[in-house]
Structures are given as structure tokens and as C-alpha cells.
Design a protein that fits this description.
The complex is a heterodimer of chains A (517) and B (348).
Chain A: H1 9-14, E1 27-36, E2 39-49, E3 54-59, H2 65-72, E4 80-85, E5 88-90, H3 95-101, E6 103-106, H4 118-122, H5 137-151, H6 166-179, E7 184-188, H7 196-211, E8 215-219, H8 223-229, E9 232-237, E10 240-246, H9 252-260, E11 278-287, E12 291-299, E13 303-308, H10 314-321, E14 329-334, E15 337-339, H11 344-349, E16 352-355, H12 359-363, H13 370-374, H14 392-405, H15 422-434, E17 440-444, H16 452-467, E18 471-475, H17 479-485, E19 488-493, E20 496-502, H18 508-515
Parallel strand pairs in A: 3-8, 3-9, 6-7, 7-8, 13-18, 13-19, 16-17, 17-18
Antiparallel strand pairs in A: 1-2, 1-4, 4-5, 9-10, 11-12, 11-14, 14-15, 19-20
Chain B: H1 28-50, H2 58-83, H3 91-106, H4 110-115, H5 125-148, H6 153-171, E1 177-178, H7 182-189, H8 195-213, H9 215-225, H10 227-232, H11 237-263, E2 265-266, H12 274-284, H13 296-315, H14 320-347
Antiparallel strand pairs in B: 1-2
Helix pairs in contact in B: 1-13, 2-8, 2-9, 2-11, 2-12, 2-13, 3-5, 3-6, 3-11, 3-12, 5-6, 5-11, 7-11, 8-9, 9-11, 12-13
Classes of the chains: A alpha/beta (517), B mainly alpha (348).
The complex binds adenosine-5'-triphosphate and magnesium ion.
GO molecular function, one term (chain B): transmembrane transporter activity
Membrane topology (chain B): Multi-pass membrane protein
Protein name (chain B): ABC transporter permease
Chain lengths: 517, 348
């Protein structure tokens, strides 16, 4: 099918070619229905995956993609319908049953166990044992190293997950899924947290697996990936199956129309904004061993993009600015005043807002409802009266406005955020910071996991904020987003700023060049 | 590769506008049903085994609710601690410590006056403030240890549990204190003996409002739900946790005052296992030990369930050993049911 993976020959050696079976499809889903209290997540949905193809699932946030994948992976049981594997009907009551049947899944949310090592996470429940029946850590680390060598991943098997960046955790998840040697590999937005370089790396791995005859289901909201990697795709909308096409038969606009039901004319509604004074000025900001001598200015109305590879220190700089992990040295000047920011509360008081990169770890209050999640950062000011009572009625109106504007799919404001789809959770978190009326808005991967329609909406919102004089720092691993939205792009490499490029001079090549220097 | 479906089915409906809604049916309803179920259970057994009614007996009901009051006041504080994702094992010992120290300020001067004629009774507010203050101080120390030294709440409050019990014993060398002023005794017997219940319900109502409608309550839930996200949202976690543990200690001190005023004596051994009863009341009432979930109303019903069970066993003349065995079983069942409910809610 594809032979672009010659450089990954070693993978070819290690993974056996899959045996033939008596069906055109390796995986078939027939007429599946799944209901949650108050929501029909899937209604009569079917899906067929051929071996040796990459099959992309497309659909708006909340369309039911993850739910369908969780059914295939044995996490949910369908209310109706069946799953067939290699032509035979299978019953998958647990994730373990699905794994044993030959289905592996990379989840939309990272599911690694933080205090454990990389190796322990990958081989959990499959640990090599020594002759006393105890876990053989030496062998386990060696197996991990072999796996990483095959996949060209440069990580220490013995490091703890909690020490890794989100992107590196994602690579561990990918390696873990590959290690099952399964017939079907499901990837639910594997690229939402990684940069172009890792995406290219992942695609090599995928092409190789495809050549081995594995059926790959691939979920993404990044349209450009679709044509690069997918052979076929299926579109879903509001729990309904819409269509399956070969990706050679259609254009990008066709797909968007199938997904959202309208044309999205302008993806990056960037407008020229009269820039104001410098509102944030950073000089020689340093955190030992993480980033060094970072200096830049941002003006009112300006959008400063942060580009760089994974681990280049972009998020760390943002965390230092917001006081999550304060810097060791250097100065931060806000509105002309030198400030020391040692905790997020101070940053918020200065008019800053910070959408973090990892919505599960540092974003969502999973047991709480949507409104409680949206209002979490404004409980310090105008929405609270002198006696400490929260104006929940007003806040409910605000939350509804935000959810409507960002197209959050939910019945009402009192649904638990845990029950929302990943993209809809992300929208709620963006809403949390919009509500604070920030003067300086720091966004770390703002459109992570957000569908094309809502993405355009969020971009136009950011543009509007810039118009109103908000200074925006936008970290993004999506090159079109950085190039499309930024006035200037700051590029980082291994903790250093390697360049700040003006919009007129910024293009993919210049930036990749600076990022890899 | 083929186009298996044409675009014919592609039709679009605008998304429904979001409207305001009342919050969902409170989860307490199911716990309330359990309370009713248990009461009916004892009622039926009462007629079958003892030949009389369990519920239609005013003095029994009064005893139940009086017994519940002391644990209930403690449980209101413990509930808040558990919602932050912590635990407080020190409540029972703090009850004893506050009781012993405050009791010496509550004694009447009848006997000592014979020797020191100048002595007068202190107004009831003095021992009350002393007791509540000592409880609050113990809670503050718990909170301070947990936030500043980062030791787990389990360990910090375990230390306080042992030390506070030691102080209670040391303070009078183990001898009980009794003979309280009339003013102080009112805390336990005033308003025609209903005073403990009144205090309990007032405390519960107050903190119910605090937890549901104020910023303080929202912070408590947020910290329990995800401390890292709470910090990024600008919440000062350390300061807030110290307040919550202080409140828990303060309420243990208040419970101690009500308890000794009612039973008219303070002993260093009192309050034994109260912390576990308070935690049990919260857990039976649906408060999640993993934090971020639970309500004061649930805890109140949980405490009532414990009280009804205790009284019901005595009513049926079940041996005290069996009572404990059954009680332990019921607590475990409550947690299992709660876990199951949560899993179900997550899965479908
Ligand atoms: N456990 C649950 N309880 C209640 N509703 C749920 C639950 N899981 C999912 N849903 C609902 O089912 C619908 C489909 O969700 P799903 O996660 O499958 O969407 P998705 O297509 O993966 O979206 P995204 O692109 O945002 O990841 C959504 O409306 C969501 O709110
Ligand atoms: Mg999803």
C-alpha cells in the first residue's frame, strides 16, 4: 500500500504480518445505538474498517466518535447492535476482553499512571516475571528500550510519567498501544498535543503498521492530517452516521460541509489591529534547567504566537508568567510595573488569564457541573457580594452565553463536565477565562481537540479580543494556526528563544528552521 | 474504494437554544428513602418481636435525635474536610480535650465557696468560648501541618488524635469534671431539652447555605475536585484548607460543649470513636471520600440513619457486640453502594 517507511525497517522485522481471515473487513460495527441519561450518543451507527487502511472518523465535538470507539474497545456496551471482528461477532464486556481480541486504543485523554515509570505503564498487567514470579524490572526496561528503538522514540524507560511533558506522555501512549501487536488500532486524537515533528514521526509509525495489515481508526480535528494519512473516512453528526468516502474522492470543503452543515469561508479571520502600548515585558526570564534568558514584549491588541518543538519550554515560560511555577530569575513587567508573580492568584489580579495545556490535570473540575467549571476563576470579584454569596443566577446567564457562542453541546449548565466530549470540555475551559475579562490572555493549545466549526469561532473570538485591546500569547503546535493568527511568532528551542519573526516574514520553513536549530 | 452513502441524508437542524434549568433532583432523595426504609424495618420488627411501636414513641424519637446531635455537629465539619479530599481523624479526641478544659470553667461555685467565699460562677459564655476556641486551635494546627509540611491529612490528624487525647487525660490527671453552672447546663438541656437539636440544626443549616451558595463553599468543592486546577484558577489552597480544618475543629469543640452540658460531666475518655461515626455519617450520606462531591443535607440524613439504627438495635434488645458488628457492615455497604452508583453514573 505504502512504502514510505523504509527507514523503519526494524519495525517490520519485529511485528509479524497479520494472518488472512475470511472477511473484507477486519472490524465491523453494525447498527449500534448508545444512550446516556438524556442524550442519544449514537443512533444506528455502522462502520467498516478494512485491514491495512487508515480510516478517519470525522465529526463535530460531541458527534459520538469517542463513544463509538469506547464501544469497540470494550469500555461501553452498546444498547443495541453488534461488533464483528475478522468477520465474527464478538462480545466485549471489558477493555481486557477487547485487548485480548486484538483491539488496542489510544484514548483522547491520557490514561497513564503518573507516579509509575514509563516501562511500568507500558507493560502493566503484562510485566515480565523472573523465576520467583516477581516483576523483572531489568527485562521490562530492556523490552521498553527495544520498543522505543523500533519506534525511534527517545525517552528513558525508567523516568516517571509525572516528569514528562504532555507530548512525551502521548508518545508513551502510542508506544504502549503499538506494543499490543493488535489487529485493530484505535487512535482518538493522538496528535492534539504534539507538534509537527512528532506528528510526522507518528505518521511513519502509522504507515508502517498499515503496511503490516493492521486496520487503523484515526480520529482528528486537523484537516490537513486527513489527506496526508487517511485512506478512507466516515463522517458522523449528532450521533448519526452520515457517510463513508475514500479520501481521494472528496475535497476538504466537502468534508467540512458534511460535518458541520455549512461552509467555513474563513479559517483564520485575522484582522489588522492598531497596536497599543507594551503591556507585558519579559526580560531574561530563567528557570534553571528549563528555560534561559527569555525576553519579549507584547502590546495591547497584539497576538504573539509561541512556536517550537515539544519540550522547547513554551509551556514552562507560560507557567512562569502566571506564577504556576515561578521563574528563578529575570523580570516581568506588567503595565509598566515590575511585578513578582509567585502564584496564579496574583496573576489573575493583574488581569492575566491562562488556559493550560492539559485539561484533565490542570483544567477540569471533573465532578463539578459546567457552570461551576466556568465560574471558577471569577469568584474573586464582581460576581460575589460582600457576604461571600455567589451571584449564580447572573453567572448562569453568562455561562449560557459562552456555551452558545462556542457551540458547547450540552442540555444545560448543570451537566457534569465529566460527561461532555473532550472538545466540549475544552470549550468550557476557554469560557472560564473569557469570563474573567483578561487584559493579558495566555492560551496554551487553545483549540486542542476542537472541531473545525468551533475552531473558526474561537479564532474570531481571539481576533475580537485583540480588537478590544487584549494582549494575547498563543502557544500552538498547529502551524497553520500560529501562522494564521499571530502578529509575531516567537520560536523556542531547548529553553532558548531562537527568534521572533514578524507576520510578514513568518512561514513554515523559517519557523521550522528556528525551532530545530 | 466507494462512497457508501450519498449526501441525501445530510440535513441540518439548528442546535436547540440553551435555557436555564433548575439543578437536578437532589441525590439526597435516595438516602432519605433508606432512612425511611430502616425506620419501617424496625417498626415491623418491633410489632413482631417486642409487641410495640418503634416510631410512635415520642421519648424514643427524642433520644434518637439528641444522640444524633453531637455526632451530627461534628459530621458537618468533617463533611467539609472530606469534600476537600482530606480526612479528620482527630474529632473524637478534640471533643475530649475541649470538654475537659472548658469544663473546669463551667463548674459552679457551691462547694469551693465554702472555702473561698469570694468565688462566683462564670457566665456560660466563658466555658463555651474556651471549648470552641480549643477545638478551633486544634483544627488550625491540623490545617497548618497539612498545608505547610505537606504531610497527608490522615497522618496529621492521626497525630492530633493521639496528642489531644493525651492532653485530655493530663489536664485533670484523668479525673472527671462535673457540677456545672445552670447557665452552662442550658446548652444541653435548655428549650425543654431540645437545645442540642436546635444547635445541630442551626449549624447544619448555616453550613448548608455556606456550601451551596457562597464562594467559601465553591472553593471547598473546587479544591476537592482538582487541587491543581483550583490553584490555576486563583484559589489560595493553603489558606482555604486551614480555614476548613479550623472549622472542623471548632465544630468538634462545640459538640463537646453540648455533650458535657447534656450529660453533666466531662471525662477524658469521652468522644471515643466519634470521628469514625462522623465520617460514617458523611459517607452514608453520599459524601465522596475522593473529594469534590457531597452535601451537608446528605450528612444530616446519614447521621439520622446511624441514630435510628443504634436505637433500633437497643429497642430490639440486640447485644452491643452484635450492634457494632452490624454497624461496621452497614458502613461498608454504604460505601460499596456509593461507589457503584458513581460508576453507573459514569458508564451509562
Ligand atoms: N458518560 C457519559 N454520560 C453522559 N453523556 C455522555 C457520556 N459520554 C459521552 N456523553 C455524551 O455523548 C455525546 C458524544 O460524546 P463523544 O465523547 O463520543 O463525542 P466526540 O465525537 O468524541 O467529541 P469530541 O470531538 O469533542 O471528542 C456527547 O453529547 C456527550 O456529552
Ligand atoms: Mg472524543
Amino acid at each position: 500500500m505504502n512504502s514510505a517507511s523504509a527507514e523503519l525497517m526494524s519495525v517490520t522485522d519485529a511485528i509479524p504480518v497479520k494472518k488472512a481471515f475470511n472477511s473484507e473487513y477486519v472490524l465491523e460495527v453494525r447498527d449500534v445505538r448508545k444512550e446516556f441519561p438524556g442524550v442519544v450518543a449514537l443512533d444506528n451507527v455502522s462502520l467498516r474498517i478494512r485491514p491495512g487502511t487508515v480510516h478517519a472518523l470525522m465529526g463535530e465535538n460531541g458527534a459520538g466518535k469517542s463513544t463509538l470507539m469506547k464501544i469497540i474497545a470494550g469500555i461501553y456496551q452498546p444498547d443495541r447492535g453488534e461488533v464483528r471482528l475478522r468477520g465474527e461477532k464478538v462480545w466485549l464486556p471489558t477493555p481486557l476482553a477487547a485487548q485480548e481480541a486484538g483491539i488496542a486504543m489510544i484514548h483522547q485523554e491520557l490514561l497513564l499512571m503518573n507516579p509509575m515509570t514509563v516501562a511500568e505503564n507500558i507493560w502493566i498487567r503484562r510485566e515480565p516475571k523472573n523465576r520467583f514470579g516477581l516483576v523483572d524490572h531489568v527485562a521490562m526496561n530492556r523490552m521498553t528500550q527495544e520498543l522505543f528503538d523500533r519506534l525511534n522514540i527517545d525517552l528513558d524507560p525508567e523516568s516517571e510519567i509525572s516528569e514528562l511533558s504532555v507530548a512525551n506522555r502521548q508518545m508513551v501512549e502510542i508506544a504502549k498501544a503499538v506494543s499490543f501487536n493488535s489487529d485493530v488500532l484505535i487512535m482518538d486524537e493522538p496528535t492534539s498535543a504534539i507538534t509537527e515533528k512528532e506528528v510526522e514521526h507518528l505518521f511513519q509509525i502509522i504507515r508502517d503498521l498499515r503496511a503490516r495489515g493492521i486496520g487503523i481508526v484515526y480520529i482528528t480535528h486537523k484537516m490537513n492530517e486527513l489527506f496526508e494519512i487517511a485512506d478512507e473516512f466516515s463522517v458522523f453528526r449528532d450521533g448519526q452516521y452520515i457517510a463513508t468516502c475514500a479520501s481521494s474522492d472528496v475535497t476538504r470543503d466537502d468534508i467540512i460541509r458534511m460535518m458541520v452543515g455549512r461552509d467555513i469561508t474563513q479559517m483564520f479571520p485575522k484582522e489588522e489591529v492598531e497596536l497599543g502600548d507594551v503591556v507585558l515585558s519579559v526580560k531574561n526570564l530563567t528557570r534553571d534547567g528549563v528555560f534561559r534568558d527569555v525576553s519579549f514584549d507584547v502590546r495591547a491588541g497584539e497576538i504573539l504566537g509561541f512556536a517550537g518543538l515539544v519540550g522547547s519550554g513554551r509551556s514552562d515560560v507560560a507557567e512562569a508568567l502566571f506564577g504556576v511555577k515561578p521563574a528563578d530569575s529575570g523580570t516581568i513587567n506588567v503595565f509598566g510595573q515590575d511585578v513578582k508573580i509567585t502564584n496564579p492568584h496574583q496573576a489573575i489580579k493583574l488581569g492575566m488569564a491562562f488556559l493550560t495545556e492539559d485539561r484533565k490535570e490542570t483544567g477540569c473540575f471533573l465532578p463539578l457541573d459546567i457552570q461551576e467549571n466556568i465560574q471558577a476563576a471569577v469568584l474573586h470579584d464582581q460576581y460575589v457580594d460582600g457576604a461571600g454569596f455567589v451571584a449564580e443566577n447572573v453567572l448562569e446567564d453568562r455561562s449560557i452565553e459562552i456555551c452558545q457562542r462556542l457551540r458547547v453541546k450540552t442540555p444545560n449548565m448543570h451537566e457534569r463536565i465529566e460527561n461532555l466530549s473532550g472538545g466540549n470540555q475544552q470549550k468550557v475551559l476557554i469560557g472560564r477565562w473569557l469570563l474573567t475579562n483578561p487584559k493579558i490572555l495566555i492560551l496554551d493549545e487553545p483549540t486542542r481537540g476542537i472541531d473545525v466549526g468551533a475552531k473558526a469561532e474561537i479564532h474570531s473570538l481571539i481576533t475580537q479580543l485583540a480588537h478590544e485591546g487584549v494582549a494575547v500569547i498563543m502557544i500552538s503546535s498547529e502551524m497553520p494556526e500560529v501562522l494564521g493568527m499571530s502578529d509575531r511568532v516567537l520560536v523556542m528551542h531547548e529553553g532558548h528563544v531562537t527568534g521572533i519573526v514578524d507576520r510578514s516574514e513568518a512561514d513554515q520553513v523559517t519557523i521550522m528552521d528556528l525551532a530545530a536549530r | 474504494m466507494t462512497m457508501s452513502t450519498t449526501g441525501d441524508r445530510v440535513e441540518f437542524t439548528e442546535r436547540k437554544a440553551l435555557t436555564k434549568t433548575r439543578k437536578k433532583m437532589p441525590p439526597e432523595l435516595s438516602i432519605l428513602l433508606v432512612l425511611l426504609g430502616i425506620s419501617v424495618f424496625f417498626e415491623v420488627l418491633g410489632w413482631m418481636l417486642v409487641g410495640q411501636s418503634f416510631l410512635a414513641n415520642m421519648s424514643r424519637l427524642q433520644i434518637i435525635i439528641l444522640q444524633v446531635s453531637v455526632i451530627g455537629i461534628i459530621a458537618v465539619g468533617v463533611t467539609q474536610v472530606i469534600i476537600t479530599g482530606g480526612i479528620d481523624l482527630s474529632s473524637g479526641s478534640v471533643v475530649a480535650m475541649s470538654a475537659m478544659i472548658a469544663a473546669t470553667f463551667a463548674q459552679n461555685s457551691e462547694w469551693p465557696k465554702l472555702i473561698h467565699p469570694g468565688l462566683t460562677d462564670l457566665p456560660f459564655i466563658v466555658p463555651l468560648l474556651v471549648g470552641v476556641g480549643i477545638g478551633a486551635l486544634a483544627g488550625f494546627i491540623n490545617g497548618w501541618l497539612i498545608t505547610k509540611t505537606k504531610i497527608p491529612p490522615f497522618i496529621a490528624t492521626l497525630g492530633m488524635m493521639v496528642s489531644a487525647r493525651g492532653i485530655a487525660r493530663w489536664y485533670t490527671d484523668g479525673s472527671p469534671v462535673s457540677g456545672f453552672t445552670e447557665g452552662f447546663a442550658m446548652l444541653g438541656n435548655g428549650l425543654d431539652r431540645w437545645m442540642p437539636v436546635v444547635i445541630f440544626l442551626a449549624v447544619a443549616a448555616f453550613f448548608h447555605v455556606v456550601m451551596r451558595y457562597t464562594r467559601f463553599g465553591k472553593f471547598t468543592y473546587a479544591i476537592g475536585a482538582n487541587p491543581q486546577a483550583a490553584r490555576v484558577s486563583g484559589i489560595n489552597i493553603d489558606a482555604h484548607l486551614i480555614k476548613v480544618y479550623t472549622i472542623a475543629g471548632l465544630l468538634a469543640g462545640l459538640a463537646a460543649m453540648v455533650a458535657i452540658a447534656r450529660i453533666k460531666t466531662a471525662q477524658a475518655g469521652m468522644g471515643m470513636m466519634y470521628e469514625l461515626d462522623a465520617i460514617a455519617a458523611a459517607v452514608i450520606g453520599g459524601v465522596s471520600l475522593s473529594g469534590g462531591r457531597g452535601r451537608i443535607t446528605g450528612t444530616v440524613i446519614g447521621a439520622l440513619i446511624l441514630g435510628v439504627m443504634l436505637s433500633g438495635f437497643t429497642f430490639l434488645r440486640i447485644d452491643a457486640y452484635y450492634q457494632d458488628i452490624i454497624k461496621g457492615g452497614i458502613i461498608v455497604v454504604a460505601v460499596v453502594v456509593d461507589q457503584h452508583r458513581q460508576n453507573k453514573r459514569k458508564k451509562s
